[in-house]
Design a protein that fits this description.
Number of strands: 0
Distance between the termini: 24 Å
Order of helices and strands: HHH
Largest sheet: none
Structural class: mainly alpha
Radius of gyration: 20 Å
Shape: rod-shaped
Length: 88
């Protein structure tokens, strides 16, 4: 599974669209509200996990000296701490 934050964003907007469906019956509305609450709970944890990972990368980038000849910018350091992924 290779989900990205944009996928989470798309799921949340899709759920918002389901909630705004004016043709839903009262029981369907309750079901969608329960689904929304569950999605929000899981989404919160995903976002917290991503924020923690970013803070860890920032910490390493700030406190780890860069190898000679690799550049000296924050993005260079971030690339080194993320397994070589490039950030634009």
């Amino acid at each position: 599974m290779k989900n990205k934050m944009i996928d989470l964003n798309n799921h949340l907007f899709a759920q918002l669209e389901r909630l705004s469906d004016e043709d839903l019956q009262p029981e369907q509305i309750k079901d969608e509200i329960n689904r929304t609450k569950a999605m929000v709970d899981v989404s919160d944890q995903i976002i917290k996990n991503a924020a923690l990972g970013l803070e860890a990368q920032k910490f390493v980038a700030k406190h780890r000296p860069l190898p000679e000849g690799t550049g000296d910018s924050f993005l260079d350091a971030l690339q080194l701490t993320s397994g070589g992924k490039k950030y634009d």
